[in-house]
UniProtKB/TrEMBL annotation:
Any Pfam family hit: Abhydrolase_1
Domain AB hydrolase-1: 156-302
Protein name as catalogued: Alpha/beta hydrolase
Organism: Nocardia yunnanensis
Secretion signal, residue range per the UniProt entry: 1-23
Entry keyword annotation includes Signal: yes
InterPro entries linked to this entry: AB_hydrolase_1, AB_hydrolase_fold, Pept_S33_TAP-like_C
Amino acid sequence: MRWTRAALLASTLSILVTTACGAGPSNRPAVAVEQPHQAGAAVTSTAPADATPPAPEVPKADLAWKDCTAPTFNLLSLGAPPQGLVLECAEYTAQIDVAGNVAGNFRNAVMRARYDRTPKDAAPLILTSGSDRSSTATLAGLAAGNASALLAARPLIAVDRRGIGSSVPVTCMTDPQRKVLADQAQFTRGASDPVDAMSVAGREATVACLDFLAPSQGVYDAPHAADDLEQLRKQLQVDHLALMGTGTGANVALNYARKYGQHLGRLVLDSPQPVGTDANGRAEQRVKGQEAALTAFAQRCSSLNCSLGADPRAAIVDLVNRAGAGQLGDLSASVLVTTLGGFLGDSRSLGNSQVTEFADALGALGRGDHGPITPFVLGAAAGIATDGEFVNRCSDNHEPSTPDKAKGFETTWGTQYPVFGKVAAIDLMACSAWPAATPMNLPDKLALPVLVLGGSADPVVGQDGRPTVTGALGAAGARTATVVWQGWGHPTFAHSGCAQQSLADYLTDGKLPADGTACPA
């Protein structure tokens, strides 16, 4: 089987706007307050503690929304939509480069989620999940779960980054290039060192994509994504936005705060990526979160007497090792690990039936039956491993790694993190040939209370990035409060009713919860 069939699913997602233009989350309330963790010497805001930020406004103008509830749920295999849920898709035009260095416009995709009872005079919350996955898919997964209270109070509008999801797609690689990159050259490298082989694959993919994108190679980074959000604000004709960035989308939100902070009424960072950290540090934090999430999944799987046996984690380690040794046919270790990460980082509320279904698929794979795992493989590839994700991820790859460091991590991480470590170390070379991104510029002045959410086992960015973010915001004068969910999954607000309540309260009146609030799993 050729796993590049995922490209077809990705292209289907990209035309969704133009054609249609469980167990639920934990709802246990906050029961404890942890001591806040700040990185560095944070500067206390001079704004009064009870100062109320400007309220986000209801749009005075609207986009050409078209109902896309059924096609979205069908495409993403989300089952039947909740009664009264409305998903609407639209698009808007944004300049390729507001500085004028590259002429022309992009078509950006957006999706609005609401209920038929959502007040029409409620200001929307704008959502970006960055380059981790399509923002519209993140929102659809949230809407499929137990988020009715949040969406019944106000609409959420997800904005896909350039080249991702339903925005104008980037298709810059050939199928063979895409497959080699996805497999980390496992089946073509022969006796070559895996890191060296991945360096070659990454270089060839980089050349192909830079040539395809010319002369717009430099406009797929987080600062340009922030410009797209500003263009959306102008089209909605509002002075102040409520903005949430999840995962690497937090970098987009921070860039918006730096460039257009005067137009923010609320700022929420859910599971932010560490700032001021090189590619090696970011990758290791992510791997730690993935391993923690896998442990939690295995514990739940075991409690359900799932088909992976008495020790599901050991069974998964064995599968990854067998894939790496070429014992699972044409399913590489990298593709299997991507599939595991895609499932663990799903924005849906994963019920017991989904856990056992995935376990059954893994068990069948171990017996040589690839059929049940195939939909998960294709879904992960289309959701988190497209050409557009590659371009965006590489465009934001600050302080990239080197082959020597990656080879060292291949050994140490492979031992410390037996499922995700080796693949993550080799993957450091995927963007090694991309022109190095300039260091991320953070806000230097932000008189706004900022809500920061996170989980104790986040499989997309890890959990240790929050202190670097709150420290940087404190240095800019912002007040922050962190809410930590003691569960696994990404993003936090999609899985925790407790975190959703803190979010709803903050959106309503701008008041922050107690810093270090803990939400039980």
